[in-house]
Amino acid sequence: MKKVIGFLITCIMTSSIVIPTYSQAAVKQNSKLVQLSPATVQKAQVYEVKLRNTPIKYPQVKGLSSKKAEHKINTTLQKGAKVANQHRLKLLADEKEAKAKWTSSQGPWRPYEYVFTYKVPFNDAGKLSVVYYEYVYTGGAHGMTTGTVFNFDLKTGDLIRLSSLIKGKEKAIQDYTYQQLQNKYSGYVLIKSPNEISLNDKNRLWVFDQEGIKLIFSEYEVAAYAAGMPEIVVPYNIFQQ
Question: Residues of the signal sequence (predicted)?
Answer without folding.
Answer: 1-25
